[in-house]
Write a structure and sequence with these properties.
Blueprint lengths: L13 H5 L14 E9 L3 H12 L4 E5 L14 E2 L7 H33 L7 E8 L7 H13 L3 E4 L12 E9 L2 H14 L3 E4 L3 E5 L4 E5 L4 E9 L9 H4 L2 E14 L7 E4 L6 E6 L5 E12 L6 H15 L6 E12 L5 E4 L7 E5 L5 H16 L7 H4 L9 H13 L20 E7 L2 E7 L5 E5 L10 E3 L4 E3 L6 E2 L5 E3 L10
Parallel strand pairs: 1-2, 1-10, 2-7, 4-12, 10-17
Antiparallel strand pairs: 3-6, 4-6, 5-6, 8-9, 9-10, 11-14, 11-15, 12-13, 13-14, 16-17, 18-19, 19-20, 21-22, 22-23, 23-24
Length: 512
């Protein structure tokens, strides 16, 4: 397989490599004060999908993002568009009942169809393609899981069948399930095209704008860090993890990191489809077109863990590389590797709808559950209906205020895990002193009762920040793969100098 790429720099996904940032058009400047029908925070799949559906209905929509369009987790997905959900329909039936499982299948199928329709209507060249999905048992595991899922997925309305083998004729996966009507696409090309369509239809997208304060009410208000104010009738928070102070949501989901490698394969040798096994955490596989007609990209992911709680990213990439080499003898060496963040809800489905608590006219989308692109696309449909006062059959299923009683065991387990992370305040630092920290790396150092997040840049200059996450006081840890400080409690992430990259934290790490 060759040598894995160096971890000296922040990783880039295959989509980032194939879709350079300069393809994005310049964005509008934000006025000192402005009025809109809807303000959307977050220019990823969920935020742009919501904005698009609303501008198509004639709403005046503003989208704000602190980074470029689709520069967050939407750029780090492997872009499986699946109604064959990874939490399994036999589990979703137990949690949400037969009707809930049916609506989950229906809504994700509608999300895929929405992406297909928008790409066609707006002439977005994003390699959208309908493919089959294949679920197979991991080696040595019983096929009982397949039998359970076959029956439950059929009851939910999916077109699914049991097969004796997968399309990998060169490797015996054993029996598998084939799900029809799944899809694949190139997410950054789609989202760049979607952003252009929003602007053509009268919406505005302002990037490089950090929303510092969000307020609901009859007249919602957003205050930016540079002192500008946005007023809107409705506010949508589409920031992967909400950043407007809804503590209840953070207790109902947990942040996980998932790892991905990409290798080159000869074109047409691996059939285009979505592939999953039944391990926990499971492997997920797909193929993507590249820039050369005779070469394609095989994309393999897995090895998930709670954000900020494991520090063996290199070993996880190596295990993915070995798994790939065993099953795909035609594959070249690992050319790219990256990780992404997943918000796992306790009951397997996203939270999409009116924000719980005292946040009138504020809506949120979070809890992607490893299906962020389909959850984001269906959020556009659902939130569009809710904001415009229309009924939607999925509203109750995805209601952020819901409490699924049969998920209380999982909820307790994850919250116990979160609570245990505060014990880090009693442990020694990762390094005894600053001199032990190599250039380009970081470590937490104890200073009396305090813990300091210390980063030594490539030039040897030392930067000190508080190791206390400003969200709820967890002790951040150094992510050597991505070059970030990650909070093990709720998944907030910061760059090496302590600037906030993703919520729920809204502020940078304090002074060290």
């Amino acid at each position: 397989m060759g040598q894995l790429p160096s971890r000296d720099s922040v990783t880039r996904s295959i989509w980032m490599a194939l879709t350079p940032g300069e393809t994005q058009p310049p964005r509008a400047e934000l006025e000192t004060e402005s009025e809109w029908d809807v303000c959307v925070i977050g220019a990823g799949m969920a935020g742009l999908s919501t904005a698009y559906h609303l501008v198509c209905e004639g709403a005046r929509v503003l989208v704000l993002d602190s980074g470029p369009v689709a520069s967050g987790e939407s750029a780090r997905t492997t872009a499986h568009l699946a109604s064959a959900l990874d939490d399994r329909f036999h589990n979703l039936e137990k949690l949400h009942g037969h009707e809930g499982a049916r609506l989950a299948a229906e809504s994700h199928a509608a999300a895929i169809a929405s992406i297909e329709d928008i790409a066609r209507a707006e002439d977005i060249a994003c390699d959208f393609q309908r493919v089959d999905g294949f679920l197979f048992a991991a080696p040595g595991e019983s096929t009982d899981e397949l039998d359970l899922e076959l029956a439950a997925a059929d009851r939910a309305g999916l077109t699914v069948e049991r097969m004796g083998e997968s399309p990998w004729h060169w490797f015996d996966t054993g029996p598998c399930l084939r799900f029809r009507h799944q899809a694949e696409f190139q997410p950054l090309r789609y989202l760049t095209g979607l952003a252009r369509a929003i602007e053509r239809r009268g919406g505005r997208i302002c990037t490089g704008v950090h929303a510092a304060r969000l307020e609901g009410g009859k007249r919602c208000r957003v205050k930016t860090t540079d002192g500008k104010t946005v007023h809107a009738r409705s506010l949508v928070v589409a920031t992967n993890s909400p950043v407007h102070g809804v503590l209840g949501i953070h207790g109902k989901q947990a942040a996980y990191r998932s790892y991905v490698v990409a290798v080159q394969v000869p074109a047409s040798q691996v059939p285009h489809a979505l592939y999953w096994d039944t391990l926990d955490p499971y492997h997920y596989v797909r193929v993507a077109r590249g820039d050369q007609p005779d070469i394609e990209w095989l994309i393999v992911g897995g090895e998930d863990h709670r954000t900020g709680q494991e520090h063996d990213g290199d070993a996880r990439f190596e295990r993915l590389a070995a798994w790939t080499a065993e099953r795909f003898p035609m594959a070249g060496q690992v050319a790219m590797r990256w990780s992404g963040q997943i918000m796992e809800p306790a009951d397997g489905l996203a939270y999409i709808g009116a924000s719980p608590g005292l946040h009138p006219n504020v809506y949120l989308v979070t809890g992607d559950s490893g299906n962020g692109l389909t959850h984001g696309a269906l959020a556009g449909i659902l939130l569009g209906d809710l904001i415009l006062g229309r009924e939607n059959p999925w509203a109750q299923l995805y209601d952020p205020s819901r409490m699924t009683m049969r998920a209380l065991g999982e909820l307790a387990r994850e919250n116990f895990n979160t609570a245990a992370q505060y014990g880090d305040w009693l442990s020694p630092g990762d390094a005894d002193n600053v001199d032990q920290i190599a250039p380009g790396t970081g470590a937490v150092v104890r200073r009396g009762l305090r813990k300091i997040a210390v980063y030594r840049d490539p030039d040897g200059v030392v930067h000190r920040r508080s190791a206390s996450c400003p969200h709820m006081g967890g002790v951040v840890s150094w992510n050597s793969v991505e070059g970030t400080w990650d909070c093990p409690c709720h998944g907030s992430r910061f760059d090496p100098l302590g600037h906030v990259l993703s919520g729920p934290a809204r502020r940078d790490l304090g002074r060290g």
